[in-house]
Request: fold
Amino acid sequence: MSRPGRRVRHSEPAPQRRPSGIDPTGPIPAVVLKAAGEAGQWRIEPVGAMRVPGVVFGSKALIDGIEPQALRQVANVATLPGIVEASYAMPDVHWGYGFPIGGVAATDVARGGVISPGGVGFDISCGVRLLVSQLSADELAPRLNVVMDALDAGVPKGLGRGGVWHLQGDGLEEVLREGARAAIRAGLGTDADLARCEDSGRLAGAEPSQVSERARARGLGQVGSLGSGNHFLEVQVVDEIYDPVTAEAFGLFTSQVCVMIHCGSRGLGHQICSDHVRVMLASMGRYGISVPDPQLACVPVESPEGRAYLGAMAAAANYSRANRQALSVAVRRAFGRAAGTSGLALLYDVSHNLAKLEYHDVEGERRLLCVHRKGATLALPPGHQDLPADLQPTGQPVLVPGSMGTASHVLVGVAPGGAFSSTCHGAGRTMSRHAAARQVRGEQLRRQLETAGIEVRAISARGLAEEAPAAYKDVDEVVASCEQAGLARRVARLRPVGVVKG
Amino acid sequence: MSHPAGHRLVPHTSDCVIEAWGPDRAVCLTEALAALVEGFADVGDACSAHVVPLGAGPGAAADELVSLLEDVIYTLDVFSVVPVRFHLAETEDGGITGEMEVVPLEETVTIGPAPKAVSYHELSMVHGEGGWRCRVLVDV
Reply:
C-alpha cells in the first residue's frame, strides 16, 4: 500500500546574492517527499536542477517534524556537480546552512565531482569519543560530586583562549600534520588510544601551508578545550544493552561508567571553512559551477582550490583529534584524583563533520568518491579494511550523543549499510536556541536535571537552557530509525549522571 | 526625518540569525555588531579605554558585513576580549572604518554560546526606502 506523499513548500526569502546560472526570480519547485518502497525511507524525486533524488531516512513521526527548509536543503545538495546516487538525509536531519545538518552527499572525483566546505561544516571533524572505565555506577556514586568538580576544574570550556595542552615551538604544525599522534608523542595518551581512533588519529593529506595565519592564531591557544554551543562532556552509565555479543566485544557492561566527549576543531576549523568558502565563491564560476545557496560554494575535487581545501580540512581534522585526545588526558587525571582510578580506555573516536575520499560501488563500478558527511557519522561494516584487527569481526563503533541530559547511544556499522556507510550523529534539533531559552529557564533545568540524579557544571544558565532536552528530537527514535533503515545496529544505551558544558 | 535603527536576533534551528537596520550603512553595521555581542555576553555598563581598530571594504555591502563580524569573532577568540561599543563611519571610497571599545572577557557575563563563524546562507545587506537592512546567520 502506498502512503500519501507529504508536500512541503519552502518559504525562505530569496538570498540577495545568487551565482549566475539559476534564475533567482523564477518559481521554486515544491519539494515533495514520498514514502519509498523500503521501510523508513522517503524520497524527493528530482525536480529543476536536481541531478539525483533526495533520500531521507526516518520514522513517520520524525519525517513529519522536519522543517521545510531542511528538505529544501536536501534538494539543493542534489544539484551539486558530480553527485551520485542521492542527496541523503539521516533521521536527525535539521535546517543548517547550505547543506542540511544530517546530510550525506558523495561526488564522483573522476567525473568532475566537487568538494564543498559547506558539506563539511564550520566545525571540521567535530566528533565524539567514548572512554570506558571499569567502575560501576554504584562504585562511582559516593564520589560523583567530587569527580564532577574535578572535571569542571580540569576541562577548559566556554569562550576565549585556554586549553590543557600548551603548545611549544612547532607544536601547532605537528598537531596539524599528525593529529592525535602528536598528542601521544607529547605524552598525552598511549598507542592503545590511537588504535581506537578513526584513521588511527591522523587524517592523511594534511597541508598546514593551506591553513591561514588567522586560523592558526585562533587554534593556537585552544588545544584541549571543549568550547561552547552544543559541545559537552558527560559522565554516563550503560543503561541498556541491545546487542550483548557486540557490547561484550566493545568491553561494555550494564551499569558501567563511561565518559563521552563531544567537541571539534574550535576556532581553527571555523576559520578554515570561512577562508575556503570565500575562495570557492570567487573561483567556482571559472569551472562553470553555480549553486542555489552561496554556502554550497564548491569546486572540482581535482582543482587547485579543491586540493587546497582538502589539505586544510585534513589539518583541521587532525587538530580536532588532538583536541579530543588532550581532553581525554584531562578526564583521566580528574578521575585519578577524584575517583582513585585513571583507567579509562578509549572505545572509539569518530567524526561527524568531514569529507573523505573513499572507494564505493556505484552502478556496479568501484569509484573514488568524495563523501561529505555534515552531521552524519561514518559507520564501517564488519571486515572493512580501515578497521583495526580487533574491530574487524564486529564493525565500527558509532557514537551518537543525545541532547544534554538525555540518553546517548553506541551503535555499530552493518553490512551492506547505506548512504555510503553513514548513519546519524545525534538527536537533531527541533527548536531554535532562542525558543528553547524562552521556554526553559536555565536554573530550573539545572534543578530538574539534578533532581533526576544528573550533576551539572555549566558556565551559563542560558547556554544550559538553549541545549535543553526539549529542544531536540527523541534520540531513541532517531537510532531506532537508523536500525530500521539498515544504516547501523544498536548496541547500548547510555544515560548521563554528570554534564560539563561550556 | 531620520530613519530608526535597531537589531534583533531571529530564531534558527541550530544557530543565530541577526537582523539589523539603520538610516545609513555604518549605523546598520553597528547594530549588527551589537546584536552579535548581545547573543553571547551581557556587557552591562562596562566601559573601556582599550580600543581595537575595525575596517572593511570598499566592496559589496554584504561582504563588508561578513568581514566586520569575522573581525569581532577573531578578536574574541584570540585575545579574549569582548566589544562593548562600536564606532563606525563610511569612508569616501565606500569602505567602512572605525574602532571597537573592548573589555576583558572576565569583566562580562557569558549568557550564550560563542559566535564562531559567519555563513553566506540567506545573507543580505540591502538599501531600501527605510535605509539599510541586513540579515546574517552566525554559527555558534
Observations:
- The two ends of chain B are 37 Å apart (CA to CA).
- The beta strands of chain B are 6-11, 16-22, 41-42, 51-56, 81-90, 96-104, 109-110, 117-128, 131-139.
